[in-house]
Design goal:
mainly alpha, 5 helices, DinB/YfiT-like, Mini-circle protein, MST-like, Four Helix Bundle (Hemerythrin (Met), subunit A), two-stranded antiparallel ribbon
Length: 172
């Protein structure tokens, strides 16, 4: 794998939507950076036992998360899961020899593009079609953006540890 992700710092004094989208893109790009320069085998490595978490699993998981929040919840689409099913509800994290960066990255990027298209059709205060399991209430796009930033930030912390264990690379 020889891609070089361009990571852009979010604007420091933009309007709210630009700021939220900037931070979300920054964290998306951070996860890509954490995966750069590794082989498929390294990306599949669960480097922090006993956890099964791998960098490739994180990318697959984030493809599912993008799909869930921006397709199922925001606009009410009902696409099937990509990597998991009832038999393996954590299938996004369970990678095997057949799973590649090329496929996972392309799928993740496609879900990000669909997320951007869906979000562009809504104002920050617009409410989702889907509702919260515990509250039965819809989510604002603002809430979804904030949640996605949190989700990426948390998993980027995991990615930092995994990457350091795989090849010693550290950094922000």
């Amino acid at each position: 794998m020889t891609t070089t992700t361009q990571r852009s710092a979010p604007a420091q004094n933009a309007d709210e939507r630009t700021m939220l989208e900037g931070w979300l893109d920054y964290h998306r790009q951070t996860l890509a950076v954490k995966c750069e320069g590794l082989t498929d085998a390294q990306l599949r490595t669960a480097a922090v036992p006993p956890s099964e978490l791998s960098l490739l699993g994180l990318v697959r998981h984030m493809a599912e998360v993008e799909r869930h929040w921006f397709r199922r919840i925001l606009v009410g689409d009902a696409p099937d899961p990509i990597y998991y099913d009832e038999a393996d509800p954590d299938g996004d994290f369970h990678t095997g020899e057949q799973d590649t960066w090329a496929e996972a990255h392309a799928t993740w990027q496609a879900e990000i593009e669909e997320a951007r298209r869906n979000a562009a059709r809504h104002a920050l205060d617009d409410l989702s079609v889907g509702k919260g399991r515990s509250t039965g209430e819809p989510f604002s796009l603002r809430w979804i953006y904030t949640h996605m930033i949190e989700e990426y930030a948390r998993h980027n912390g995991h990615a930092d540890l995994l990457r350091e264990r795989v090849d010693g690379a550290t950094g922000d």
